[in-house]
Design goal:
Elements (H helix, E strand, L loop, with lengths): L2 E7 L4 H6 L2 E8 L2 E9 H11 L5 E5 L2 E13 L6 E8 L6 E10 L3 H6 L2 E4 L3 E6 L7 E5 L9 E3 L10 E4 L5 E6 L4 H22 L19 H19 L5
Length: about 250
């Protein structure tokens, strides 16, 4: 599928461009100077949802073609999440390029169909290297080979489109597997483990504390009731001795 985006050259700052209802952006790369441009906001959002960041797009600036680009970066407003700026990268069609590509898991796992459970995925995007004309928007990964809970799919198991090389993760990285559904006993064991953790925390907090350092405040450093009573009696006796007249 071919994608096309129309832009206009921009001479004003991004804030003013957004105020006028347009989306500011910049085009750079392929050993050419950077160029400030603007797009219709809804036009870009529609294209971005369809093409993503790993699809070649034909860019027209003021009606003239400037070649192929990819969406390099999209900046969002931290509060509204509205797109506020776009970076487009020109692509040299004669040189290999690197790009992130989404993984899409298709089909049905026989073990899940027969015994239940869930599909567990640990990788959702890979970095690929290819010539621009070989770049794809996504890679389909079939899970039809998961016949047991011991079966796994790794990077090295992928059937890749022609011209695509995966740079990362490494080929032995685990990507997807089937996991059995939890039994009632396992769920109860997890709940029990959770309560044990809480109990251990309570036991830990109930342990005797170390003797407080000199000058420390708080309940741990307060004297016992018997020690306080003894000290009070000694103080009263000292006061009585002071009140007695000295012997002749």
């Amino acid at each position: 599928m071919n994608f096309q985006l129309t832009a206009m050259k921009r001479s004003v700052k991004g804030q003013k461009t957004r105020y006028e209802g347009q989306l500011p952006g910049v085009v750079y790369g392929a050993k050419t100077i950077s160029e400030s441009v603007s797009f219709g906001y809804s036009d870009f959002v529609k294209l971005y949802r369809a093409a993503g960041e790993s699809t070649l797009v034909d860019l027209l600036v003021d009606g003239a073609s400037v070649g192929k680009v990819i969406v390099q970066e999209v900046q969002h407003d931290p509060v509204s999440d509205r797109i506020i700026h776009v970076d487009l990268k020109r692509i040299d069609m004669s040189k290999k390029m690197k790009a992130p590509v989404e993984l899409r898991f298709i089909g049905e796992a026989p073990v899940i169909k027969a015994s239940g459970g869930t599909i567990v995925t640990s990788v959702h995007t890979v970095e690929v290297e290819c010539l621009p004309q070989d770049l794809v928007s996504h890679i389909d990964i079939s899970i039809a080979g998961l016949n047991s809970y011991e079966d796994v799919i790794k990077i090295k198991d992928f059937v890749l489109p022609a011209g695509i090389k995966i740079l990362s993760p490494q080929e032995d990285a685990l990507v997807v597997k089937a996991a059995p559904a939890l039994t009632e006993e396992q769920i109860k064991a997890m709940e029990t483990a959770g309560s044990v953790t809480v109990d251990l925390a309570k036991i830990e907090s109930a342990k005797p504390e170390k003797a407080p350092e000199e000058g420390a405040e708080g309940a741990a450093g307060a004297p016992s009731a018997s020690a306080k009573a003894t000290a009070d009696k000694a103080a009263e006796a000292k006061k009585d001795d002071k009140k007695k007249p000295a012997s002749a």
